[in-house]
Amino acid sequence: MTALEAVAVHLPPLAEPIEPVGERLGLTDRQIKLFRRFHGLDRIRTDPDGDLTDLLTAAAQALAPLRGNEHRVKYVLHARSLPIAAPYPHNPLHDALGRLGLTRARAFTVTHHACAGSLLALDVAGRLLAADPDPEATALILAGEKTFTRDARIVPETALFGEGAAACLVRAGGEHDRVLSYAVDQRGEFDGRLADDPELMQRYQRSYPELMVAVMEAALEEAGESWDSIRLLLPHNVNQISWQRICRQIGYPPDRVVLDNVPAVGHSFAADILLNHHTATTRGLLRRGDRYLAAASGIGATFAAMVLQH
Amino acid sequence: MLVRGPLPATTLPRTASPLRLTAAHAHDLPGHSPLAADPDLRAFTADLARPYGVELDEEALAGARGHSYDTLAERAIRALTDPARPVDLLVLVYATPDVRPGQAVALRLAESCPGEPLSFAICDEGAGAAFSALLIADAYARTAGARRALLIAVEQADLHHRPHRPARLPDRHSAAALLWEADGGGRALRGTASRSDVSDSQVDYVLRELCTELPEDALLLLGPGLTGARPPGGRETRTARPGNPYTGSWAALAAALADPGCADRPLALADREPETGRIDLAHWAAAEPTP
Question: For B36, which of A30, B69, B89, B99 could close a Cys bridge (C-beta 3.0–4.6 Å)?
Fold first, then answer.
């Protein structure tokens, strides 16, 4: 059963208040205030001087158990929200592997699930490892992206993107952070640019809570768990208000949703789940054996959830 | 489509994988997609290129050149599937950017594919991604019960920026797709092998080494990354079109599958991605009779 061996994060040095970020995006004062007061956003982490290779390299270098075990890494997956991240033939993933001494690993980007991509990458990595003849083989999942274009800076009325990055070492089996279930619901009817299509935006916003709850409950059911047995919810960091509403809807205590990174980092694409996992374990919020739920959605749209056992 | 469930406690060995390569399809598309005229393409490409100090290709942008991965892949879906045979997994494979570079095409494709499969894309591995897709399909068959998988590689010929150095680019817009099924018939995947960091001078040696385990009567298909490589001693080979660096290997496989003279022979496919120096090999058994 797929297990997370270790998770590490890299937060870029600049923590900029959302006001100048919003001004650069051309948001009105009212829109910026809504982000702060209603959505619970405060600061956005970015690295204006670094590129994607720097970001991915730093995340992997923060992963202490990787050092000395590079030879065990058989697969490297970049869980990426945007289908394209650099002008061809630039290849930040492989440039990062060169710096990390991981060029022997098979490495590719997993994409088109947008910000739910890290859950997909965990599933793909787990299955590749389970099918691999070497029981000691590991997979390295990297997540984190640059806020290089408008669609990578803002989800209208919903979120501001940040450049938090994470790395996760995965094994085919292990004692802790074992994957118990994975559910994904793909909704191609939400394909399109939300920023240009108010009707699409409205439909997506209206459907979002119901679809998010449905996929989380599908993952719970498959794992044989219920909301009562879930110690912690690791969300994607779009904002605080949407998760508070979902908590009201399902009767789940909002203080058990790890929302620390929403005001402090920004929505870091597919890295959110791993960032929040790191926060949860660093804060000691999970005890051995606890079941927890990770959930994310991605524009396009994908809704995904995963139950794990710490 | 909702995919559920943990990995089963046991995993089927490769020899027990139910999936067989049953069909393949390749096509080119002339002309250009209307999406290449969308002003969003310029805005996105400019933002993408700026941090890397790369210039836009104004001719390609003004000429609205390029094709859509959605259109290219959809034709492959129509060619290889029918509603009575639902697909469980769809993997889209690409290396160069789409004319709608921000779109999650794989999700849209799942909607037009029988079975509304779990779908996603892999990229950033060049020619190697075609082999990663094979491994992924095999893994989902052996650990997730996938009964039918559709792998689609796409490439379109026009970049809208000027690459910072020479790089492999297709000379036409193309797609190539493989259908794997568990209903009987087709070819079982017998094995895969790979070597990384292979320099130009090592290519012939490594290719020969990788091919030592192949059955003697196997037909070896050399992908576009192995154009000019010396065929391992005495082995019959066919070479893919070099102008299709990212779909050519599967197109060559499709041609071999369609060739009645190859039906009773094992097939092998090898390719090299010069950017990463990786050589991959996959080989299939001779075709099993359809029940």
Answer: B99
Tokens linked to B103: 């779109």
Cα–Cα distance, A167 to A77 (Å, whole number): 10
Adjacent-strand bridge partners of A291: A230, A309
- Contact between A87 and B163 using a beta-carbon 8 Å cutoff: yes
Same domain, A182 and A303: yes
- Compute the residue count for chain A: 310
Q: Which domain holds residue A49?
A: 3-171
Interatomic CA distance for residues B128 and B270, integer angstroms: 10
Give the CATH number, domain containing residue A183.
3.40.47.10
Judgement on whether residues A266 and A122 belong to the same structural domain of the protein: no
Q: How many CB atoms are located within 10 Å of the residue B2 CB?
A: 15
Percent helix, strand, coil in chain A, to 5, is 40, 25, 35
User: A164 and A194: one domain?
Assistant: no
Structural domains counted in chain A: 2
Q: Which residue of B has its CA nearest to A97?
A: B276
Instruction: Among A171, A192, A209, identify where a domain stops.
Output: A171
Q: Do β-strands B173-181 and B148-155 pair in parallel, antiparallel, or remain unpaired?
A: antiparallel
Closest alpha carbon within chain A to B46 = A149
DSSP state for residue A267 in the 8-state scheme: B
Q: Is the CB of A55 inside 8 Å of chain B's CB atoms?
A: no
ipTM: 0.97
pTM above 0.95, yes or no: yes
Residue pair A298/A117 in contact by the 8 Å Cβ criterion = yes
Letter for the amino acid at B17? S
Spacing of C-alpha B135 from chain mean position:
12
Domains of chain B: 15-181 (3.40.47.10), 187-284 (no CATH)
Digit-by-digit pLDDT tens for chain A (310 residues) are 899 999 999 999 999 999 999 999 999 999 999 999 999 999 999 999 999 999 999 999 999 999 999 999 999 999 999 999 999 999 999 999 999 999 999 999 999 999 999 999 999 999 999 999 898 999 999 999 999 999 999 998 899 999 999 999 999 998 899 999 999 999 988 988 887 888 998 999 999 999 999 999 999 999 999 999 999 999 999 999 999 999 999 999 999 999 999 999 999 999 999 999 999 999 999 999 999 999 999 988 999 999 999 9
